[in-house]
Amino acid sequence: MTLKEYLNQNDRFASEAGIQLTEIREGFARAELTVEERHLNGVGVCQGGAIFTLADLSVAGTANSHRKTCIGINCQIHYVRSAVLGDHLTSECNQLGGRRLPLMEARVVNQKGELIAVMTAECYNMDTEMQYDALQ
After folding, report:
1. Alpha-carbon distance values, 49 to 41, 61, 77, 109 (Å)
2. Of 38, 68, 73, 91, which one's alpha carbon is 20 to 30 angstroms from that of 59?
3. Mind listing the pLDDT tens digit for each residue in 16-41?
4. Which one, of 52, 73, 64, 54, lies nearest residue 24 by Cα?
5. Is residue 131 exposed (0-12), middle (13-18) or buried (19+ Cβ within 10 Å)?
6. In terms of pTM, does the model score above 0.70?
7. Rounded to whole angstroms, how far apart are CA atoms 121 and 136?
8. By mean pLDDT, which of 28-37, 54-63, 127-136 is the weakest?
């Protein structure tokens, strides 16, 4: 099983929300979501938690791309603009540096390339082997 398959199957919350990893390379991951009715908040725009979960899944793919179990310990998200019904959102995450406490940055954009949110995440490398055949 690949890391992409493993995370898409086992991150049940993201999967139930319709979020999928579409690419993983060492130090990079991409996740995608199309905004549906179920993602809208009380004022009719995409709920911040859906955007957060999208960015978080791309962080998980990036953080675990080195065959070591790595978990998030701190993150911050800045919402730049709203996403609306029908928007196709993509979160691309890059590892900025670090080994024991790697730092990640995920940028969420819509189908027009407009910036929706930026997440920075600090992770903790547990130094335990992850068992997967390939990244994708």
Report:
1. 9, 18, 10, 15
2. 38
3. 999 999 999 999 999 999 999 999 99
4. 64
5. exposed
6. yes
7. 23
8. 127-136
